[in-house]
Design brief:
By secondary structure, the protein is of the alpha+beta class. The chain has one domain: 3-Layer(aba) Sandwich (Alkaline Phosphatase, subunit A). About 25% of the residues lie in helices and about 15% in strands. It contains 11 helices and 12 strands. The strands form 4 sheets. A 4-stranded mixed beta sheet has the order 3-2-1-4, sandwiched between helices. A 4-stranded antiparallel beta sheet has the order 9-10-11-12, covered by helices on one side. Strands 5-6 form a two-stranded antiparallel ribbon. β2 and β3 form a beta hairpin. The longest helix is centred in the middle third of the chain and has 28 residues. The chain is globular.
Amino acid sequence: MNGIPLDPNIPTFTEALRRVGYHTYCAGKIHLHNSAPPKGVPLNEVNPSEYPECRPLWLNGTITDLPTPFYGLESVDYANGHGHNSYGHYLQWLEQEHPESAKLFHEQTVLESSSPASELFNRSSYKWALPAEFHPVTWIADRSIEFLNTAGSAQQTGESRPFMLMCSIQEPHPPFAPPAPYCYSYDPKDVPPPLGHAGEYDDLPPHFHQMYDTPIRTSGNHSQPMSTTTPYYAECAAHYFGLIEMLDDQVGRVMGALRANGLEENTVVIFMSDHGEALGDHGMWGKGPYHLDSVIRVPFLISWPGKVPSDSLHEGVVSLLDFAPTLLDIADVPIPEGPIPANPEALDAPSAWPGRSLVPVLTGENTATNTSALVEMDEDYLGFKMRTLVTKRYRLTTYSGQEYGELFDLQEDPHEEHNLWDDPANRSLRDELHLQLMHKIVETDISLPRQLSRA
């Protein structure tokens, strides 16, 4: 869930790298703290030091910078939010250096008349008049390129140090508001229809139907029926595709700077995302209490020169939990565990962190594909917790305290149209996946703080 600050005492991979000499840097979104003030607390009573990413405090000038190191990040060029809701160092730069474009930003100026989709919550869609060169995505790429240029110059003079660059681009994401030329790249008439079929909510948990037809509040919906967006599906999707193309172009620029500075052969590059977008599939939008494949399947691309052939493809399931252990393993940096005894009390204790290093997978030492991943969501607004197990073939989703659930055979039903949860013929399969889910929940439970003594 959003809105829960990360405990600063929890060890991070960024701090682990910083402590061994890496320059840890982020350009773009961080969002490890609340971007809104705590509910019911007047803004003038919010302590900026306790809410350093609070958007209203950045907008009124109370906060102008992040305290560094920030969760292990030695330096930061900060741009949180999405589209016209962006803020941070990016907005400071835009207002100071390009006031005319800042006006287009604040007024959400459009290039042409918008449909009613421009007024939708969390799915607002329009063609933004803000020039692409002043868009937050471009600014994040520009800052990343400047960082790489500095690193390249330092390498030439023999003054370089290892670095960890987090180029944290926050698109594609609602609002679906690409600038030109990207807002014209895809014709809504050419957009394929969303996945789904009539009557599918009859076999799904009740909140699917409620979210589509009624204004209930959930983590992914602000009291607005999902059906409100249905007439504008093609427009929203076309604009979403335009945002993806803009992202592709800016990632290409960053990779070009890596090559131009002679850093490519000695740098591991990982491209990943935190979540997908329902984009109208099964009537849903955004990300919320629905673990649809379009929401939970994300990119996980790794370039490791000299170690991983460029045409490698792993068919097994991996998890975002595997990211940090993999990165630290590649860097030969131990996983940080916080306070630990000089002599371990239990030599066979499980790993402190969830997830696994993918180095054996990347190097071809481990080719197993019978792996699984856990997906979690606590839907406090609806009063339940969701836990999902994903295997190479199946997705099982359970809801705490509820008899209903979801079971999909992704091999035979890749579009997730036939929920097998209540199918008597699949009862033993459901029980087996339930058991696997229980083991996965235990396996991925974080083992911190560590045991210091027997008693």
